[in-house]
Amino acid sequence: MTRLAERYGQHPQPITVAARAVRSLLAIALENAREGTVRELYGAAVAAWQAQRAHDVEVRQAFAEIAPEESAHAWLSFELDAWLCSRLSADERALVEAERTRAHSELLAELAAPVPEQLRVLAGLPTPEQACQLLESVRTSLSAAA
């Protein structure tokens, strides 16, 4: 991704990760619901989309490699969710589900924002309408499988 970014004139900064305090299972479950079972799942779906639709062949190839990795991350998030929820109280599980619903609504609102056409075509990004449909599609598929 750095190579692609630099090809288009961007220079990503190194990522630094600060140490975190020990968190409760509930705190981890809330973050996983938001970042894993909603955003990571959508990230996997959109990466697969881009692998099929990016105008730039190098971008298509990159996302063809990334999509399976993102799918594995999403799968892990759902496995972690099941494990965490098996150790939480009913009230805590309700909080986790509310967080997942909130994260889904927030992401849906973000996806409605327009993407510059040149970027959308080059990177193979879905239109706002397609992005919202894609998010709803993966959510519906999960609900049907559960």
Commentary on this structure:
It is built from six helices and no strands. The chain is globular and about 50 Å long. The protein is 76% helix and 0% strand. Helix 2 packs across helix 6 (128-145). The protein is mostly helical and 146 residues long.
Summarize the structure.
By secondary structure, this protein is an all-alpha fold. The chain is built from six helices and no strands.
Summarize the helices and strands and which ones pair or pack.
Elements: H1 2-7, H2 25-53, H3 57-85, H4 90-111, H5 117-123, H6 128-145
* Range of helix content: over 70%
Number of helices: 6
State the major sheet.
none
List low-pLDDT spans.
none
Approximate strand percentage: under 5%
Structural class: mainly alpha
Tell me the overall shape: globular
Radius of gyration: 17 Å
Tell me how many strands there are.
Answer: 0
End-to-end Cα distance, whole Å, is 34 Å
Q: Mean pLDDT across all residues, rounded?
A: 93
Short key terms for the protein model shown above:
mainly alpha, 146 residues
